[in-house]
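Researcher: Here's the sequence for the chain we discussed earlier.
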Amino acid sequence: MTARWLDGEVLASLIKDDLTGRVARLAARGVVPGLGTVLVGDDGPSARYVAMKHADCAEVGITSAHAHLPADAAPADVDAVVDRFNADPSVHAYLMQYPFPAPLDYAAALLRVDPAKDVDGLHPVNLGRLLMGERGPRPCTPLGIQALLGHYGIEVAGREVVVVGRGLTIGRPLAALLSLKEPGANAAVTVVHTGVGDLGAYTRRADVLVAAAGFPGLVDAAMVRPGAVVVGAGVSFEGRKVLSDVADDVADVASWLSPRLGGVGPMTRAMLLRNCVEAAERSVGITPPTA
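Model: Thanks. This is the structure I predict for it:
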């Protein structure tokens, strides 16, 4: 069996086309969506990722604001940027690029963010809304994975989804999202992690398997039930090379598989743009569409 690709680039392009039209309609009302980014330190992958986000913004007509603080910035310096973006009406949504260099406290800074401007959907208020099934900013990578599965006709309702990884940005919110009683969800979700002794005992049960632990090659063919759908959401870096949690031999047993490049990554960025546009829409009383 040779897996078919869950091509995120194709779907991300369609989402950007839709957002370009929505941005134009907002501009006709005198509102230009604005995305802010906060980068602390000089982590190479983080800096490259922030640059990609600003390039994406330019594609659809979103304006960009950026604050770059040195690695030895004081907590008060971070707080000042957060307060400035909270108060700036031209910045409809913004993010703080994770990770922060030690000893700065990312969680403390996140708590200071205006939940309405939380483009990553990670503020406790927005995570709480997710758990309640309420609308609002939702975490970008889980949203992107859900959209990717739906675009390729992969039903999760009533099926067993296994998520490997319990992180704040993917594992935990993805489990909450896919277990909601709403379209594109309603799955039976199991969350496991690298502290579990026999991961394969869980992963081989999955109809849909999402690897989101950040360990290169963690999931190999022996851990996948033949015909399962596999999404590689966790990445790590070897220099500038992106390494996937999913080993290459999984393509021989899966029915669908996200590529190492061009799979989940473009979808995460597309959903970030969508969250920003929806924040701008809400700011003028427009209710964003539900999907």
